[in-house]
Amino acid sequence: MTTTEAPPGSLPGTARAARPQERTAQRRRAILDAATRVFGERGYNNGSLVEIAEIVGITHAGVLHHFGSKEQLLLAVLAHRDEVDIERLATQQRPVGAEFLSHLVATAQANTERSGIVQTYAVLAAESVTGDHPAQEFFRGRFAVLRGDVADALGLTVGAPASDERVVAAASAIIAVMDGLQVQWLLDAETVAMPDTLRFVIDAIVESLRRSVAATP
Amino acid sequence: MTTTEAPPGSLPGTARAARPQERTAQRRRAILDAATRVFGERGYNNGSLVEIAEIVGITHAGVLHHFGSKEQLLLAVLAHRDEVDIERLATQQRPVGAEFLSHLVATAQANTERSGIVQTYAVLAAESVTGDHPAQEFFRGRFAVLRGDVADALGLTVGAPASDERVVAAASAIIAVMDGLQVQWLLDAETVAMPDTLRFVIDAIVESLRRSVAATP
DNA sequence: GTCTATATCGTGATAGAC
DNA sequence: GTCTATCACGATATAGAC
């Protein structure tokens, strides 16, 4: 798709200037998709603008025209992935409590069919802890929000405030299992059963938490 | 320590040729330490031989003289870390069963005082899933061995064969929690309590496993 | 065993033509 | 909006002097 035909539905004669911002938006999205793939396959440091540009069918100068710098491109990739996720959550109303926890398992199940996204996330999250990585703030914030969401769901499920430190620790643990399993699965997909293992751990944690809260609320 | 004095205890006159292989071994160890630090702080791709050499007090050509290439240096770093761990395990006899699981918690506790090692491990493990990363085989094998060890300990603890798939899944999960918590902790040390959280999860998993095995052995 | 010097390459970024 | 051309920089690796 490197030709420059008019967008479908546009009138002849008005084609070129009709919706320039629309074609630009398409290009940007194509670049974002390519960048997501490359950063996932090679990491941020090792991924190159030239490779991203080649996938889209332009030169690396074209990529920089749209995003200014490699760093801004990375942040756009991460923001874009969040937007997509939010859209999906907005369509169906957001699950709460135990349903939210089941939703995590369903996500793990879905992830077994899209190793690209999983790898992008896993590689960039770990890479972000180095030096002054551009995505460091992003992931710090992301984990904080995620811990809050999982703690809310756990609190609702076991009947304890989400601020209870045992609940918060359990939330950290569930997120940690998801991330840790992803790395193991990426290295050895046949041995590691992500969704089943996650289901098992969540059940074990909820059960243990329930007991603990019942004993000393 | 960039001077070239004779090793302590060597006789005058025989100093220079006395134990050349010993000084070389010291140099190699110094390079390994520096490389461990740099690869941890910056990742493998982003870490540079020049920076490693500067820490040791030589040029990057000197580093290459000892290790041949950057890739071989990385593999030497990983092998060296394993040797150190094995030595420590060989000194005290290896803990088994529930004691081995407690040993994992103790390790997590010790890790809170050495973020450098933790970061090296976390960053390299995730980076290793990319493309044809030189450490990919190393980490694949490492996870396999680790899963086996934890499964052995779990099997002994709950009275089930280590080959039981529920036991293996539980072993994957425990390793995943350790790794996932490390990333969260590196990004936000104040919020994430590694050892306590790990203890909680291991207890929950063991308890759940015990129940499951008792129901259907 | 370590140095200096150099080869070779790839990177991100900029400038200006079209 | 995308191109070509070029820049400045840093990387790994090699060759040869000392």
Automatic annotation (TrEMBL), chains A, B:
SUPFAM superfamilies the record matches: Homeodomain-like, Tetracyclin repressor-like, C-terminal domain
Xref: PROSITE patterns: HTH_TETR_2
Transmembrane segments: none
Alphabetized InterPro entries for the sequence: Homeodomain-like_sf, HTH-type_TetR-like_transc_reg, HTH_TetR, Tet_transcr_reg_TetR-rel_C_sf
DNA-binding region: 48-67
Pfam families linked to this entry: TetR_N
Stretches the record annotates as Disordered: 1-25
Superkingdom of the source species: Bacteria
Keywords: DNA-binding, Transcription, Transcription regulation
Boundaries of every HTH tetR-type domain copy: 25-85
A GO molecular function held by the record: transcription cis-regulatory region binding
Protein's name in the database: AcrR family transcriptional regulator
Originating species: Conyzicola lurida
